[in-house]
Amino acid sequence: MVLFIHQQPFYFPMKNQIRLSVFLCIALLTLSAVNTTAQKSSFDLISYSPPPGWTNMIQNDALVLKSPEKNDGFFCLITVYKTTASLGNINSDFSKAWNEIAVDRLKIEEKPSMENPESDNGWISLSGTAPVVLSGTSSVSMLTVLSDNSRTMSILVITNDQKYKDDIEAFYNNLELADPGIKSTTSSEQPLGYSGAGAMSDYIFTLPPEWKKEENANEIVLRGPDNTSVISILPFIQSSGDLDKDMNTVFWQVFSGWSQDEWNNTEHISTKGISPDGWSYFKDEMAIAKTDGDKKYTAYGFVFLAQLGNKDAMIVGSYQNKSDLLNETDHVDWQLLFHSLGFKGFKSTISPQLPKDILGSWVTGSYSGIVTYTFAPNGHFSSGSAFSTSTQVSDYSVMEKTTSFVGDGTYAVKGNILSENFSKTGKTVNSTARVFYQKQYGDWQKRLGLLSTSVVDGTLYEVTLAFQDDKK
Predict the structure, then answer these.
(1) What is the three-class DSSP state of 307?
(2) Contact by Cβ (8 Å): 450, 431
(3) Can you tell me the distance from the alpha carbon of 409 to that of 394, in angstroms, rounded to the nearest whole number?
(4) For residue 201, how many other CB atoms are within 10 A of its CB?
(5) How far apart are CA 377 and CA 382, in angstroms?
(6) What count of other Cβ atoms lies within 10 Å of the Cβ of residue 86?
(7) In DSSP terms, which residues pair with 383 in a beta bridge?
(8) Nearest to residue 267, comparing CAs of 251, 248, 283, 286?
(9) Domains in the chain, CATH or no CATH each
(10) For all residues of the chain together, what is the average pLDDT?
């Protein structure tokens, strides 16, 4: 049903063409065969040779190569950022890298001029260029993102003169990525990282409280205690290596005969990310409708895909009303299933991402209350919350009272468990955490979900915070 490009990384000497625009000059850089005689250094997944006379250093988990310092005002910088988990396709990986590197760090406002994506031995590359002002000097930036739908790596070039074309070309010509020995993206062999059969017996999960399970040869059906929420766990399907593409293919196959509810079209929520175990996922949910004669039926439906090598695990669900248990804004039944989800035969090929993903500032709230968190790289955090109450004192006046709380301490992440140790009270609060990207009304937004137990009534709830520095 779906074509496959698997997520397990391959490594190759770069051979594609990348265009670098320097002011009005275009220099085509043909990345040719690797010069195997050059002396190489290593960084993360790459072997490289600095251009003659260039300096190189490690700064903030990135490799920085700098052209020789002269008094002519010209310069060139090449920065290679460490490998991170892919969002599942090259366009999403480029968009994320561009926003984090070009927009957030370099304050580039202009949209990049894009090249067409190129592929070689399982890796896809995508490049974009845009003007940038660095230390008061007008320059040009080129960001190249490599992705195999499991890992992604970014290379940033900034220069203010075309004379560095040969040095940049030499760097790319000598760039090598280590080969793990996997043959090709069209191989029918199971890729590293997943050795399961792709059967329903490979699913590992825990039922949410009071849910019932029914199992047959074709699916596992979970029914909620509200008698309207239903989840079906289905056999694996072949993966194209692009979860967005797979979702577009299978969603309306699952909900055949239905269409998006035109009277409720804002209820379309897409979620994607990397699980703590290392597999990519994509969940698409929307209000759907169908007609039968003069009758109209409405519901909410979702499809969840998890990419495991050349297979996609598929879970689908439906519920009738926004108050039902599968509406994850008001209930945590889906979150409980998601956090318990695993797959036999799967072993992550990437390092845990959650400790890095939670870094930064997060916020959630409304006009009556707000919650903030900041997680620092040194293992310390700060948090704050405030809420307001209003009391009418006359027909013409209202008294508003604001109450605030602050806290700080140290934190640790193990798997998907976030432990906060508060300095003042000495208490430890454990939450089940997930960092994901979500889109409902516009662009993708970075989110942090903290699933905890209420100290008031002992019920489970999830606080969802937005990445405060997110400008998307």
Answers:
(1) strand
(2) yes
(3) 43
(4) 10
(5) 12
(6) 25
(7) 373, 407
(8) 286
(9) 17-177 (3.40.1000.10), 200-343 (3.40.1000.10), 354-467 (2.40.128)
(10) 79
Is the CB of residue 121 less than 8 Å from the CB of residue 36? no
Residue type, 301: G
Contacts of 190 (CB under 8 A, 6+ apart): 309, 310
pLDDT tens digit string along 89-111? 888 889 999 998 999 889 998 99
> How many CA within 13 A on the CB side of residue 144?
22
d(CA 98, CA 111): 9
Query: What are the CA-CA distances from residue 269 to residues 253, 462, 472 (Å)?
Result: 18, 17, 16
Tracing tokens 């074309």 back to the chain, one arrives at: 165
pLDDT of 60 reads 66
Q: Tell me the residue type at 51.
A: P
User: What type of residue is 240?
Assistant: S
Q: Provide the token pair at 400.
A: 């508003």
Helices marked H in 174-269: 243-254
Q: Is the pLDDT of residue 469 over 80?
A: no
Q: What are phi and psi of 373, to 5 degrees?
A: -140, 145
Q: Of 58, 182, 36, which is closest to residue 123 (Cα–Cα)?
A: 182
Number of residues written out for the chain: 472
The angle subtended at Cα 442 by Cα 316 and Cα 6, nearest 5°, is: 50
Amino acid (1-letter code) at residue 162:
Q
pLDDT tens figures, 428-437: 989 999 999 9
Please choose, from the candidates 461, 463, 423, the residue with its C-alpha nearest in 3D space to the C-alpha of residue 447: 463
Q: Answer yes or no: are the C-beta atoms of 393 and 399 closer than 8 Å.
A: yes
**Token output for 163:** 């004379």
pTM (predicted TM-score): 0.59
φ/ψ of 104, rounded to 5, equals: -70, -45
User: How high is the pLDDT of residue 457?
Assistant: 77
